[in-house]
Write a structure and sequence with these properties.
The chain is mainly alpha-helical and 118 residues long. Helix content is 78%, strand content 0%. The model has no long low-confidence stretch (mean pLDDT 82).
Length: 118
């Protein structure tokens, strides 16, 4: 088969043309492969960015929930309730009682000030 193909070519011009066609096809094939590979990588990177953005949103939501819980735990009402509970335990143990505070005596500190974002 190859010998028939070889005999069909008469001269160097045919071989040069075949070589040029093979080189061009190799370049085009390589470029097509590179294009597809880069597109696949770009899609993977976009997916990772989307996952990271979703994770950031989830963490922001969790942070807001935690900030709410901290503010609720440090509210004047919650602190007064804690003092009452501690006084009840102190009565049972025979320890001195805590002085109950009035709501006006409790000064809440905003969360931003605590973090230094004032």
């Amino acid at each position: 088969m190859l010998s028939l193909m070889y005999e069909g070519f008469h001269g160097d011009a045919d071989w040069k043309r075949l070589s040029a066609v093979l080189v061009i096809l190799s370049i085009v094939g390589g470029l097509a492969f590179l294009y597809l590979w880069l597109n696949a990588k770009a899609i993977l990177v976009q997916r990772q960015v989307s996952e990271m953005a979703l994770e950031v949103k989830r963490l922001e939501t969790e942070l807001l929930g935690l900030e709410y819980r901290v503010e609720a735990a440090l509210s004047p009402e919650a602190l007064l309730q804690l003092v009452k509970e501690l006084n009840e335990k102190a009565k049972e143990a025979g320890e001195p009682l805590l002085v109950p505070l009035k709501k006006e005596q409790i000064i809440p500190i905003p969360g931003d000030v605590e973090r230094g974002n004032d």
